[in-house]
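Dear Dr. K.,

Following up on our conversation at the group meeting, I've run the structure prediction for Transcriptional regulator with XRE-family HTH domain from Hallerella porci. I'm pasting the input sequence below exactly as I used it, so you can double-check it against your construct before we proceed with anything downstream. Let me know if the numbering doesn't match what you have in your notebook.
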Amino acid sequence: MNFESTAKAILKIRNSNNLTQDEFARKLNVSRPTVSNWELAKCIPTTEQIMRIHEAFHVSADEILQIKKNTIFVIDTCAILNRPRIINQLLGNESISQVIIPDTVISELNYQKDHGQKQLAWLAMVTIEKFCKEYPHKISILHEENASGINDQKIIFAATQVAKRNIHSTVYMLTNDVFFSLVENKLRNLEVLNLQDFEEKFPLNANCFNREASFRFFEEVKAGNFKAAQIALSKGANPNFIHPESGYTPLIQAVRNRDKSMVEFIANHPKTNCNLCDEAKYRLPAISHAVQLGEMTLVKTLVEAGADIDCQSQGKNHGNTALMISAWHGKQDFVQYFCQNGACANQQDSNGFTALIKASIKKQVSCVRFLYPLTDSRIRSFEGLTAKDYAIKSHNSELLNIFKEA
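The predicted structure tokens came back this morning:
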């Protein structure tokens, strides 16, 4: 036990109540030298003395002894499927001690991977497997042999067992299923949180920002209320706030709204990170959203504000750039703009695809014709194939002629 931290806690209690050591000692029915020894970290109060401090000053034993409570999260399936990146957020938060995933959740994800939400479940499974190997001290799979009933009941049972085994810790059940909030909970150290509750208790990038103003700012951006958004931002809103439901930043929301004035305003704010990705499946930055919408004006606005033209996606099929997305969808004007403004034509995504390879796969002839002279055509995907190989597989005569002419 840390005597010094306890000494500081006792001194703080005494000073906050404007008491001398003599007055403090009389209230607790101890001698003044005893109080002095506590504050000099020579000893700590006995159990009986701690109870007296608690009763006299309404301070818990944990606060007096400076016992740090661990924070443990038990995650439900729907929370992971709603936001696969939630695990990254939990592990990246220093105030969270442990993340536990019941094996029932793993079974449900496996089922969804094969039958339901295939891509989200696959992404969640890959993420869990990766982090269990990298952070075995912080994330683990829990198997409860005595769990019974339907899956929801098994997950609740797992959470209650974790809370019972860790009575001095705070255990949170993270779920977006209202069923869990309706279940009777008699454990004082177990609390059910939905994703919005989680954002409020464990906010991302919230230091020095007003959370209420951040929520208001996002809502005003979403509604297209330019002046109200300006006011909210001036009151301490976080321009990089990630909305707990949509997973969008205000800038990405403005792009999705096709709101040029709002995009220009937010992108040029000195504290805005134009390259932040959303928290959806593909985790795209604002510039890629603008490409998806076919909004060249917004792309130019973002680039002029300093957005990274080669910013990569961070989710499923990570490494995708705005140039690659343009080539995949045959947006030749976007491909041309990006290349003329310094985009890297040889950049590869997580499949080893370049923009040229993507254009070849999708038979986007005009994009292939433009990209071919700018790209190292010897680059191979992780399948070991070049852009020309994909053109041959496509049996598209126009594509083949481009490579033959070269």
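Two things stood out to me. The mean pLDDT is 88. The chain has three domains: 3-65, 71-201, 204-308.

Best regards,
J.T.
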